[in-house]
Each structure stands twice: as structure tokens, then as C-alpha cells.
What does this fold into?
Amino acid sequence: MHYVISDIHGEYEKYLKMLDRINFSENDILFILGDVCDRGKKPVSVLRHMMMHSNIYPIMGNHDALALYLLDKFSVEITEENCENYLSPEDLEDFNLWIEDGGITTAEEFLKLTPDERRAVLEYMHEFPYYETIDVNDKTFVLVHAGLGNFSPEKSMKDYTPEELILYRSNPEFQYTDDKSVFVIMGHTPTPFFIGIPEIYQCGQNIYIDCGACANGGRLACLCLDTLEDFYIE
It folds into this structure.
């Protein structure tokens, strides 16, 4: 089976419970549509679990991209040669804003790793793609964190910038395609913003699966692409 989860946000126990809930095995495939990092208590634990499974495929989210940039920056040894100009005021401001926006849990857990473990996590995150396209049965699924910003039917997926794929706030009513066999699956914007409840939301060919796992009253959601069955962990 093919499964999709998004916006785990450090909810490691919910993530493990979901894998049990769907009976995830080495014969299955799981795509994670970004924002593993920040807010919940154990984002790095989720990352390290993902790293151990070749059938789990990550996609970059905005929180992951910012965490990667800053952890890369702050993992470099500061020396007399680079101390004056290595970290800019903008870097320090970005770091403070990241910490305030839930990055503290990622930073704290990352710092508990050994240097080799830190390098392995960063190398893994550097390989995150910004989208995937997969055919399952008679359907095509475009998997992306946030949506297709500045959409144009003339643009191919590789023409979109990272910012258009990880920061854009999608409008459910706007349809990227009228092909009934093609679906765009997104996270990033919790579905309670659209429908008031933490459930997977399909509007035409758009499917939204961020159900606010790290929020009060939110849930971690998973969609099976083979059957379109949904699963939830409180």
C-alpha cells in the first residue's frame, strides 16, 4: 500500500501509533509531505526513524527547510578566522524567530546528538525533494507540502521555486487540474482552517491532509492512496 502523512511536527508517539494503525510494513511505501520539524517534543526522533526506513520518502516543508538552514549554520565551528562575518544579524534574527515558532524542540533534541549523528541528520535532510509524483492504480498523485504557488498550466513541476512549493497558502476552491484522474495532495494549512474540524478535506482534485497534529484538538492524519481510506491518531 501507498500512504501519505503530513505535518508531523515532532509528534513522535503519534507518528509511531499511526504506523501501527496502518500496519506499516516493508512492503508498503510512506510519503511524508514536510514539516517533520519543530513544535512537538521529538522532531529529531521522527527524522532518525525515517532515516532507518528506505520505504519512507520525505518531502521538504517550510519548517524543515528553515531548520536545515539554521542547523547547518550553527553547526559550523566558530573560529578566529570566521567569527566576525560568519553569522550575520539576519541569521541571528532568523534563529530567534525560529526558536519562537517552535524550533526550540528541534534545536534541543539536535544538540543531544553526537557530532556524527548530527552530520547524518543534516545530510539526510539535504536530500529532501520538494515534490513527488506517483501513479497508483488508475490515479496520479502530485505530492507537495503547501501547494503550487503562482500556478500556471504551462509550468512543469520542476519550474516551481522552493518557496512556491513550501510557503504558498492554497485556496481549496482553485483547481490545479480538471483531469479527474489527477490529484494534488498537500499539507501546510491545517484543515480546521477550511472546514472547522481536523479531518482530511477533499475539494475537487485538491486533497488536504494536515489535520493539526501538534495543535490542541488536532489529529495526525494518514491517507492510503490505493483506497483513499483515511486514518487518524488523536
